[in-house]
């Protein structure tokens, strides 16, 4: 009789979907349905991301970020080299302008005092300009480096010769020599004779 009183408010509603090992039932107690088994099922059905997948995704994201960063750096490096190259060209242009001051035949028409002042100013500016170091190196092998040195030596020798012979009225001859050097660098469209030795080195 007591047993009937204890269980009279309980009834089995229906079996829940579960594994055969843990068969659960919804139990109604005074109109309340226990859904604890459903909560357990929902938690079992939630997606679990494997650790390896998380790690692989993280590595892929990092790799993509690094590649993007390096692409941006490469663009900035090229811009830097381009800007430095322009500065280097500007420096060479200024050096040539200042170096040609003393080569100008019109300078001989001035008085000695004026020539000295102009020469001193040009020398001062030339030294200041040369003090600016702008270097953009181009990778070269040993043979290319030697050829570049030979070309620079030929140009320097020609410039020095022009300075020495300026007072001997041989400026036109040296202009022709420089023109042959330039033509050697433009073999497809030369404007006159070519300096073969210079072309071989270039």
What does this structure look like?
This protein is mainly alpha-helical and 202 residues long. Among the domains are: 60-138; 142-201. It is built from seven helices and three strands; from the N terminus they run αβββαααααα. It has helices at 2-7, 36-45, 51-101, 112-130, 142-164, 171-184, 196-201; strands at residues 10-15, 25-29, 32-33. A three-stranded antiparallel beta sheet has the order 1-2-3, with no helix packed on it. α3 runs antiparallel to α4 and α5 (142-164) runs antiparallel to α6 (171-184). The radius of gyration is 44 Å and the shape is elongated. GO terms for molecular function: adenyl-nucleotide exchange factor activity; protein-folding chaperone binding. This is BAG domain-containing protein. Residues 63-97, 141-179 form a coiled coil. Keywords: Coiled coil.
Helix and strand topology:
Blueprint: H1 2-7, E1 10-15, E2 25-29, E3 32-33, H2 36-45, H3 51-101, H4 112-130, H5 142-164, H6 171-184, H7 196-201
Antiparallel strand pairs: 1-2, 2-3
Helix pairs in contact: 3-4, 5-6
């Amino acid at each position: 009789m007591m047993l009937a009183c204890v269980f009279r408010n309980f009834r089995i509603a229906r079996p829940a979907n579960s594994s055969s090992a843990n068969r659960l039932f919804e139990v109604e107690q005074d109109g309340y349905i226990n859904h604890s088994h459903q909560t357990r099922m929902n938690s079992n059905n939630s997606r679990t991301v494997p650790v390896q997948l998380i790690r692989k995704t993280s590595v892929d994201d990092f790799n993509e970020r690094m590649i993007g960063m390096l692409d941006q750096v490469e663009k900035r490096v090229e811009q830097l080299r381009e800007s430095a190259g322009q500065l280097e060209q500007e420096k060479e242009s200024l050096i040539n302008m200042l170096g040609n001051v003393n080569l100008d035949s019109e300078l001989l028409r001035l008085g000695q005092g004026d020539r000295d002042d102009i020469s001193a100013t040009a020398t001062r500016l030339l030294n200041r300009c040369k003090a600016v170091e702008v270097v953009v190196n181009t990778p070269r092998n040993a043979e290319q480096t030697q050829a570049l040195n030979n070309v620079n030596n030929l140009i320097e020798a020609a410039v020095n010769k022009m300075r020495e012979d300026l007072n001997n009225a041989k400026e036109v001859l040296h202009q022709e020599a420089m023109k042959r050097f330039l033509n050697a660098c433009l073999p497809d469209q030369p404007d006159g004779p070519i300096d073969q030795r210079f072309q071989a080195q270039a």
